[in-house]
Specification:
Length: 366
């Protein structure tokens, strides 16, 4: 009985749950480790993100007989050059728009209220505002609270600067060793897998690596192109804070499925404050840019869509946000991809073992 497969499986599950229970009782012993992980989580995430972006370039230069360490240093110099170009060409305009936004923030709420009052006086639209006289007031309050939150966040320079210092100090070092020795991680992980399943483990690691690489590289390309398209469109229609809104849209679009909706909200608000017509044109620009990204660029760059249902994506975003805020939202889909690949591989192994055991069972019965 002790050698029975299901008995051993049940014993393993009970042992695992017992370990979790005992671990919860001595959680205070792990608090320093948890604090270190929280401190390094953002640098590690950014390093992993940059690793998948830069690894193809490092591998390409290594194939061209350039030393791997020298390749990484050359890429670092190129990144520094891009930052200098950004600082010289983009930052002055972006800084001016940020300062103007901060200065005009109190007037934006009043502008939104005035536009709603004008719409309420329009004969065609007045019927839609019957019984909703406090709609503009509530929206203005929401906008005012959002602006206050952004202003307070930007004013909390100590926290922001300390976070930036930690990232700047640790990210280049972590990224350097990832790029230099990242290819050594797979053999180490494979050595931890039982020999019987080592081949399947190797294939699983390759699938995870390929999925993450494809997801990160393509999302960066698509979102950067989307930001450029939005900026050009905003300039054409004369939308205020065009560069600032385009820059905000790029990171928001990394949030799966709902990111495009979140990115459109500040665009529509700024456009509506100027005039309802400008808000409509801004909406047209956003829709056209999104359609170009989804139906033209995505099939060319990515080749195929992720096999994730939109409802699943929304649930992942909600769960990730509830667990770890904005970081949880951003990593929800990649984590789901990893877990899905692992579980599918385990399922294939279980099915294969059952198929192999089936003839033996029949012989025993006979």
């Amino acid at each position: 009985m002790l050698q029975h497969k299901y008995f051993r499986t049940s014993l393993a599950i009970i042992s695992f749950l017992l370990i979790l229970y005992l671990g919860s009782k001595v959680m205070f012993l792990f608090m320093p480790l948890v604090a270190i992980i929280k401190l390094l989580l953002v640098p590690m995430m950014l390093s992993g993100f940059m690793y998948y972006l830069l690894r193809p370039l490092v591998n390409y230069m290594e194939k061209k007989k350039i030393n791997r360490t020298l390749s990484i240093l050359l890429l670092y110099l190129a990144i520094i050059g891009l930052f200098i170009l950004f600082w010289a060409l983009v930052w002055p305009t972006l800084q001016e728009q940020i300062q103007n936004f901060m200065k005009n923030a109190p007037y934006l709420v009043q502008g939104l209220q005035d536009q709603f009052n004008q719409l309420r006086k329009t004969p065609v639209l007045s019927r839609f505002f019957q019984g909703e006289s406090d709609l503009a007031t509530r929206l203005s309050e929401y906008l005012n609270n959002a602006i206050t939150w952004v202003t307070n966040s930007m004013s909390n320079l100590i926290t922001v600067i300390s976070g930036i210092v930690v990232v700047i100090a640790t990210l280049p070092i972590i990224l350097y060793y990832m790029l230099k020795d990242g290819h050594k991680l797979s053999p180490i992980v494979q050595s931890l897998i039982p020999r019987k399943y080592r081949k399947e483990g190797q294939e699983t690691l390759k699938d995870i690596d390929a999925a993450l690489s494809s997801f990160i590289v393509t999302r960066v390309l698509l979102n950067v192109i989307l930001g450029i398209l939005l900026y050009i469109g905003f300039l054409i229609i004369g939308l205020p804070y065009s560069l600032l809104l385009a820059v905000i849209s790029v990171p928001l679009n990394f949030i799966p499925f709902v990111g495009s909706l979140l990115a459109a909200i500040p665009v529509l608000i700024v456009g509506f404050i100027e005039s309802p017509t400008l808000a409509l044109w801004a909406l047209v620009i956003v829709i056209i840019a999104q359609q170009i990204q989804d139906n033209v660029l995505s099939p060319i760059i990515y080749g195929k869509r992720l096999d994730v249902h939109p409802l699943t994506t929304v649930l992942l975003v909600l769960i990730g946000g509830d667990f770890y805020g904005i970081i949880g939202v951003l990593i929800a889909l990649p984590v789901y991809m990893i877990v899905k690949i692992i579980f599918l591989r385990i399922y294939e192994i279980i099915v294969a073992e059952r198929v192999e055991e089936a003839p033996v069972i029949k012989e025993d019965l006979s």
